[in-house]
């Protein structure tokens, strides 16, 4: 995830008058930085990794797994620990940041790795520490996974459960599958991003997977949502 700062984001219509200005000055800044730094040598390579965790909730009685919309709650606790360490002068093993969805959090190392081969030896242990740190805050019926959740967009896939409202006037995405409540609400970037993409395109994003047709597929194929 890129740099997140606090502020009031603009709508697409408010951005349009500044588009050419942003393009022009972005190119000018790039060229200026290139000429200022093109001769710099001897810098140490700094690198890292990020893992996006999906918070899931198990309903054993219904034999169903849902995504748990507790990312903001968990991030508040995780980032409070970061701030406390900073005040005490302690190093943070991990750093935690929001992601697009209200069921996702992003974990990174507390500091960049260096340019020595020995740095590769601590990557796995840091990943283990990250998972342990967030797992301590989970409820007994929750877990985190770092792969895509296979049931996104199916009915009742969130906890708490929300229904998509594609015709809502104040909705960001107007999706027929994905409710706005599943978008992270702790920072204005994410819902505003979806809203601005929709305004810029003049329509909402629609990605339809082609239907594989065999002898049992109705023709025409119709689905009611």
UniProtKB/TrEMBL annotation:
The keyword Protease does not apply. This is Glutamate--cysteine ligase. The keyword Nucleotide-binding applies. GO terms for cellular component: glutamate-cysteine ligase complex. Keywords: ATP-binding, Glutathione biosynthesis, Ligase, Nucleotide-binding. Its EC number is 6.3.2.2. Belongs to the glutamate--cysteine ligase type 3 family. It comes from the Eukaryota. It catalyses: L-cysteine + L-glutamate + ATP = gamma-L-glutamyl-L-cysteine + ADP + phosphate + H(+). Pathway: Sulfur metabolism; glutathione biosynthesis; glutathione from L-cysteine and L-glutamate: step 1/2. GO terms for biological process: glutathione biosynthetic process. GO terms for molecular function: ATP binding; glutamate-cysteine ligase activity. InterPro entries: GCS, Gln_synth/guanido_kin_cat_dom.
């Amino acid at each position: 995830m890129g740099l997140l700062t606090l502020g009031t984001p603009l709508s697409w219509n408010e951005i349009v008058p500044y588009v050419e200005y942003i393009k022009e000055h972005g190119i000018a800044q790039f060229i200026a930085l290139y000429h200022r730094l093109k001769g710099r040598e001897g810098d140490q390579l700094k690198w890292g990794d990020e893992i996006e965790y999906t918070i899931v909730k198990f309903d054993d009685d219904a034999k169903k797994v849902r995504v748990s919309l507790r990312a903001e709650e968990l991030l508040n606790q995780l980032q409070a620990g970061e701030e406390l360490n900073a005040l005490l002068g302690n190093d943070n093993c991990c750093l935690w940041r929001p992601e697009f969805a209200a069921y996702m959090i992003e974990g990174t190392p507390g500091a960049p790795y260096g340019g020595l081969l020995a740095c590769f030896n601590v990557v796995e242990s840091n990943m283990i520490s990250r998972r342990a740190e967030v797992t301590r805050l989970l409820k007994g019926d929750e877990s985190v996974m770092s792969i895509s959740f296979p049931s996104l967009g199916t009915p009742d896939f969130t906890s708490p459960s929300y229904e998509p409202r594609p015709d809502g006037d104040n909705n960001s995405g107007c999706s027929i599958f994905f409710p706005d409540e599943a978008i992270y609400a702790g920072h204005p970037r994410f819902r505003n991003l979806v809203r601005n993409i929709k305004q810029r395109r003049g329509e909402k994003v629609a990605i339809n997977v082609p239907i594989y047709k065999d002898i049992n597929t109705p023709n025409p194929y119709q689905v009611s949502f």
